[in-house]
Amino acid sequence: MASVKICALEDLTPNEAVKVEIDGLSIAVVRDSAGDVFAIGDTCTHGDISLSEGFVEDDTLECWAHGSKFALRTGKPITLPAYEPVPVYEVSLVDGDVYIDPAVTLAV
Length: 108
Prior knowledge:
The structure is a single chain. With 108 residues, the protein is an all-beta fold. The protein is built from no helices and nine strands. Helix content is 0%, strand content 45%. The strands form two sheets. A six-stranded antiparallel sheet has the order 1-9-8-4-3-2, with no helix packed on it. A three-stranded antiparallel sheet has the order 5-6-7, with no helix packed on it.
C-alpha cells in the first residue's frame, strides 16, 4: 500500500495525539513541540486502551488508563505495566501535508 494523506501539518496541535484509521489500523499521530510528527499503533499493549486519548510528554505518549509510556520514535514501552512495544509507522511530510505508510513499520 502507498502512503496515505492524513491531514495538513498545521492541523496537528503540538503535544496532542490524534487517532486515525487506515485500512482497519488504528494509529495515533503526534506532532511534538519541535514539529516532528510520529505515528504509532493506537492500542496500548497492556490494556486495549486508545493511546491517542493519553498524554504527550517530550518524546513519549502515555496511556491514560494505567500510565504506561511509549517512546514515539521506537514504540517501546518506557514504563510498566506495558512490556510489549506498539508498531511505529513511516511518516513523510510533502508540501505541508502529513502522509503515513501503514505497510512500513519501523524497527529500532
